[in-house]
Amino acid sequence: MASAPPRAQIFELFPTPVMRVEGCIDTTLVAGLHAQLGGDLSQANHRSDALSHSRLLSPQDAPLLREVAQRLDAPLREFGTLLFGEALQWRIKEMWLNVMQAGGQQAMHNHANSFVSGVLYLSACEPASNTTFIRSLGGRDYVFSNANPRSSTGPFNAERWIGPTPAAGDLLLFPSYLLHEVPVNRGATRSTLAFNAMPDRLDAWGYSMSFSI
């Protein structure tokens, strides 16, 4: 009698969460944000002439931004619980509008001085210009790679992950330290509202830190 083959198990150690929320805001709010913020694109991108940004904004700057912050509260609590194991109070520290014309791109970067970052899409995106996340450089991975026509790419050896194609009103949340970029936009104008968020406090067995915004 042949013996059964040994049973193998794969454990996904220390995975990094990225959260997508479809339809986080409705079309009326999307249109209102375009109308209210679209005229304030005073900041040119330092690497792409076809990408412009608004000044840094706060939810207190406009009623529509306060409404956006209220819509983001529940997803931020849920995502923060994945990161820190507790339903903390989250606050948005800054928001800014990004408008990318055809031919524009956003260079690889991450966000300092925050814990959770997000992209609220105010337009549909051409799939080739979806937000793309890059594996951290100089990490603890092997120095050698195995990239050739015979190899396949999976979550354990991929160097980048392309986010799902969004619709206007969709939300993407991720840890602020994740490197990300937007490849060259080959489609129509791409508009997003990006933001950074902080918890009100963190408590490590009595060593507590509070963050004021």
Q: What is the N-to-C order of secondary-structure elements (H for helix, E for strand)?
A: EHEEHEEEEEEEEEE
* 3D shape: globular
Q: Write down the Rg.
A: 20 Å
In what range is the share of β-strand residues?
Answer: 25-35%
Any idea of the CATH topology? Answer: Jelly Rolls
InterPro entries: CHP02466 (IPR012668)
What does this structure look like?
It holds the Pfam family 2OG-FeII_Oxy_5. InterPro entries: CHP02466. The chain has helices at residues 27-37, 63-84, and strands at 19-21, 43-44, 51-53, 90-100, 106-109, 116-121, 132-134, 160-162, 171-175, 179-182, 190-199, 201-204, 207-210. It has 213 residues and is α+β, with helices and mostly antiparallel strands. The chain has one domain: Jelly Rolls, CATH 2.60.120.620. A hairpin with a 6-residue loop joins β2 (43-44) and β3 (51-53). The chain is globular, with a radius of gyration of 20 Å. The mean pLDDT is 94.
